[in-house]
Amino acid sequence: MSMPEFFLALALVLLVTMAAGMIRIIVGPTPADRMMAAQLLGTSGIGVLVLLAPALGIPALIDVGLIFALLAAVSVAAFTRRRIGRNQC
């Protein structure tokens, strides 16, 4: 098995974890559970992009993954700030 095939197989495993995260987003009992599942989707998506970059020979996918990582950090900060503000009122 060559390295590109190995990277594609790992990307497929991450896609399966993303499917599990989608189930948690739909079924999640609390908003915090849904947010954690969304973080799982973001992290797995970044992992898929980083694995696909060398497998497909498109280095720009790494840059896209880094941008998604920044957006994920901002979304968690916004969610946390919103939840804390709601509990203090």
How would you characterize this protein structure?
With 89 residues, the chain is an all-alpha fold. It has one domain (3-88). 90% of the residues lie in helices and 0% in strands. The chain has 3 helices and no strands. The protein has helices spanning 3-27, 31-56, 60-88. The longest helix has 29 residues, at 60-88. The termini are far apart. The mean pLDDT is 87.
Task: Give short descriptive properties of this protein.
89 residues, mainly alpha, elongated
Topology:
Layout: H1 3-27, H2 31-56, H3 60-88
Number of strands: 0
The largest β sheet comes out as: none
Q: Termini separation (Å)?
A: 58 Å
Our count of helices gives 3
**Proportion of β residues?**
under 5%
What is the radius of gyration computed over CA atoms, rounded to a whole number of angstroms? 16 Å
User: Percentage of helical residues?
Assistant: over 70%
Helix/strand order: HHH
The shape, in one word, is elongated
Helix/strand/pairing category: mainly alpha
